[in-house]
Amino acid sequence: MDFGPYLLLASLEGAVTAAVLALMAAGLSLVFGVMRVVNVAHGEFYMLGAVLAWVVASAVGGGPVLGFVAALVVAPLLVGALAAAADVTVLKRLDYDPERTIVATIGLLYILQQLTLMGYGPEARPVAPPFNARLALPWVEWGDAGPQLYWPWGLSITSYKLFVIGAAVAVLAGLWLFMTRTRVGLVMRATQLDGEMAQAFGIPVERVYAGVFGLGAALAALAGVLIVPIQQAHYLMGGEALLLSFIVVIIGGLGSLAGTVIAAVLIGMSDGIISVFFSPTLAKIIATLLVAFVLVFRPRGLMGKAAR
Amino acid sequence: MTGRGREIALHGGLVALLAVLAFVLPAYHHGNVARVMVLAVYAMGYNLAFGYTGLLSLGHAMFFAAGMYGMGLPAYHLGLGAGLSFVAGLAAAAGLALAVGVLALRTAGVAFMIVTLMFSQAAYLTILLFGTYTRGDEGLVLTRASRVLAGVDLSDPMARYVAALGLFAVALFFTLWLVRQPEGRVLVAIRENEERAELLGYNVFRHKLAAIVLSGTMSGAAGAAYGLLFGYVGASFAEVQYSIFPLLWVLLGGAGTVIGPFLGTLFMFYLIDLSADITSAYMLIAGLALVLLTLFAPQGLGGEIRRRWAGWLP
């Protein structure tokens, strides 16, 4: 393949990564924005979404479409409920103290990961995509008679990958409408601005927190369900996803949905493209150091009120 | 007994007890306790930053690994003797701690946690990147010849135990001495109220940097000793897990107590050792311990003892 088509292919793969990453990071950013909690267990909610997708799809049977749709509904709901329960039983009792909640969510991370290892096992398992038509893509080449379209070998994308991109866009648009146009979204934003004042105005802040934590986890789980027909479900898949979403959320500015989405596109695309040119390990080193230096030299600008 | 006498009796008694155990313990536990003592030095190093200065780092594995690789690489590739390579390990950890401290201490709280986590992750990936020299996850196995210190073969179980105990005793009494010094008091003052310490005229940044460098060097000493005593240097010691472990040990044993890190390490080591018979998912125990500790006993074992019976516990 020539360089041009190759780059297009890398960007398309990058767009799929970006779509999934944006969903996950939006959940992380929402939780931090409203609750000021850095949820280290966020990657495990993503992993649980993927693992539950496999469980549901294999339990339902009756063709890949039915199983996948069932997983798309059931897995985020279950994970969201689990996260809300964790909020009420653990995080609430810590008074959302920033440092202690990080330690507690690290504990939660290991509990979820190891319980999955015990129940689901160390294997990586796939879920069949509901549809998977291969779509060849054209490329323009300047031949002797001006620009010409041709179909380079290997330049293609599956319909399922396009669906992932579309679904992520739809869900994020829905989330934005939910936050800006509904009463519940208004209550959440009020809590984000000033929790105590919101409480004084009769907003049930504790229930808002449980709801936000559940919603954030459900977004991660949804990302997990969407990715599992492309990657397989594995009990350790949360770690790298968590790292990438941290990077996205910090670069994008915590609590800002638009910033998160822009950063996800940036990171997702460049992850696809950079790993074409550099070794993946070196790319990751650059990315982690970038995050560290952003935090060191712009702590207040990007971390907002957390950098006390 | 006066406060000073009680302290020396308690900590000296612990070292004496461990010395007696060297001759009593069966082989399996003999090796375990030697390991626990080295890891407890790591926990004590972590405790200097977290317990006494209030700096919650999620990246101490990089200091442990810096000590380990700073010792292991010259020993493996250049055939440096055990003593010199141990010193090289200390220097590597101290240098890294100084560099990371200068950068990371510009942040505080949650940002500090994430910055240390990211630096540590970068350090781990760097070890993998230079796989030609470090052999990545596979690690380096040190030869017996490179583990001889002043004519003593450290691969011999008894020599290993004595060396571990020696390092442990040095770290224990150094910590005890430090926290009774004005320097140690300033660190506690910073932990309790940073603004007030600054208002009183202390250069908070410089004291915090000193704490990070001491903490990193002690963690590096543990890493170098671990490699030397157990003959293995591997990238897995730089993983996130090894940053979480000292936090767990210190929380369990009691942050800001001299004896707490040892208690926490010993307790957790045997908890995981015993649960390994039941399940391979031993990190489940660590996770449960973290959640339960933050919920019910944020002061840990040592903190509870201090609160209930012995207010003098340093």
From TrEMBL, chain A:
<feature type="transmembrane region" description="Helical">
    <location>
        <begin position="208"/>
        <end position="230"/>
    </location>
</feature>
<feature type="transmembrane region" description="Helical">
    <location>
        <begin position="160"/>
        <end position="179"/>
    </location>
</feature>
<keyword id="KW-0029">Amino-acid transport</keyword>
<keyword id="KW-0813">Transport</keyword>
<protein>
    <submittedName>
        <fullName>Branched-chain amino acid transport system permease protein</fullName>
    </submittedName>
</protein>
<dbReference type="Pfam" id="PF02653">
    <property type="entry name" value="BPD_transp_2"/>
</dbReference>
<feature type="transmembrane region" description="Helical">
    <location>
        <begin position="274"/>
        <end position="297"/>
    </location>
</feature>
<feature type="transmembrane region" description="Helical">
    <location>
        <begin position="68"/>
        <end position="90"/>
    </location>
</feature>
<keyword id="KW-1003">Cell membrane</keyword>
<keyword id="KW-0812">Transmembrane</keyword>
<keyword id="KW-0472">Membrane</keyword>
<dbReference type="InterPro" id="IPR052157">
    <property type="entry name" value="BCAA_transport_permease"/>
</dbReference>
<feature type="transmembrane region" description="Helical">
    <location>
        <begin position="6"/>
        <end position="33"/>
    </location>
</feature>
<feature type="transmembrane region" description="Helical">
    <location>
        <begin position="45"/>
        <end position="62"/>
    </location>
</feature>
<keyword id="KW-1133">Transmembrane helix</keyword>
<feature type="transmembrane region" description="Helical">
    <location>
        <begin position="102"/>
        <end position="121"/>
    </location>
</feature>
<feature type="transmembrane region" description="Helical">
    <location>
        <begin position="242"/>
        <end position="267"/>
    </location>
</feature>
<comment type="similarity">
    <text>Belongs to the binding-protein-dependent transport system permease family. LivHM subfamily.</text>
</comment>
<dbReference type="InterPro" id="IPR001851">
    <property type="entry name" value="ABC_transp_permease"/>
</dbReference>
Automatic annotation (TrEMBL), chain B:
<dbReference type="Pfam" id="PF02653">
    <property type="entry name" value="BPD_transp_2"/>
</dbReference>
<feature type="transmembrane region" description="Helical">
    <location>
        <begin position="161"/>
        <end position="179"/>
    </location>
</feature>
<keyword id="KW-1003">Cell membrane</keyword>
<feature type="transmembrane region" description="Helical">
    <location>
        <begin position="247"/>
        <end position="272"/>
    </location>
</feature>
<feature type="transmembrane region" description="Helical">
    <location>
        <begin position="78"/>
        <end position="104"/>
    </location>
</feature>
<feature type="transmembrane region" description="Helical">
    <location>
        <begin position="209"/>
        <end position="235"/>
    </location>
</feature>
<feature type="transmembrane region" description="Helical">
    <location>
        <begin position="12"/>
        <end position="29"/>
    </location>
</feature>
<keyword id="KW-0472">Membrane</keyword>
<dbReference type="InterPro" id="IPR001851">
    <property type="entry name" value="ABC_transp_permease"/>
</dbReference>
<feature type="transmembrane region" description="Helical">
    <location>
        <begin position="49"/>
        <end position="71"/>
    </location>
</feature>
<feature type="transmembrane region" description="Helical">
    <location>
        <begin position="110"/>
        <end position="130"/>
    </location>
</feature>
<keyword id="KW-0812">Transmembrane</keyword>
<feature type="transmembrane region" description="Helical">
    <location>
        <begin position="278"/>
        <end position="298"/>
    </location>
</feature>
<protein>
    <submittedName>
        <fullName>Branched-chain amino acid transport system permease protein</fullName>
    </submittedName>
</protein>
<dbReference type="InterPro" id="IPR043428">
    <property type="entry name" value="LivM-like"/>
</dbReference>
<keyword id="KW-1133">Transmembrane helix</keyword>
